[in-house]
Amino acid sequence: MPRPDRSPLLLAGLLAAAGLTHFVAPRQFDAMVPRALPGAPRSWTYASGAAELALAAGVALPRTRRVAARAAAAFFVGVFPANVQMAADCRRRPAPLKAAALARLPLQVPLVLWARGVARSGEGRS
Question: Which UniProt keywords apply (predicted)?
Fold first, then answer.
């Protein structure tokens, strides 16, 4: 299977794994929820996990791939404040945790570009 054909499935797999992790180990995600958001952090954790699972299903299916990949790009932009929150909270943590938190910030850029590329490759297909 050529790389462009695998790319949507790899993105769907990444989204599904991240979504499942929100339900299996929610505590780490609860801590990332910006305090400015209303409601319980766990509700946001579960909602974002469900969104990632829905996006994964949409990206995996050729018929919904283009729209779902665009939505995934928007989702990656939308969760950026959570990554900023995590980086801010890790200021006084051990160096490896701080480095991981800071590394997540620029990682959003290739994720957005990847999702946009999958959306473009799905254009014109049904």
Answer: Membrane, Transmembrane, Transmembrane helix
d(CA 49, CA 27) in angstroms, rounded, equals: 12
Q: Are 80 and 111 in contact (CB under 8 A)?
A: no
Question: pLDDT tens, 44-59?
Answer: 999 999 999 999 999 9
For residues 24 and 103, the model is more confident at 24
How far apart are alpha carbons 112 and 101 in whole angstroms?
18
Provide the pLDDT confidence category of residue 4 given band limits of 50, 70 and 90. Answer: low
Contact 16, 58 (CB under 8 A): no
Q: How many CB atoms lie within 10 A of CB 123?
A: 9
Angle between helix axes 41-60 and 3-24 (nearest 10 degrees) is: 160
Largest distance between two CA atoms of the chain = 50
pLDDT tens track for 25-49: 999 889 888 888 899 999 999 999 9
Give the ranges where 31-94 is alpha helix by DSSP (H). Answer: 41-60, 65-78, 80-89
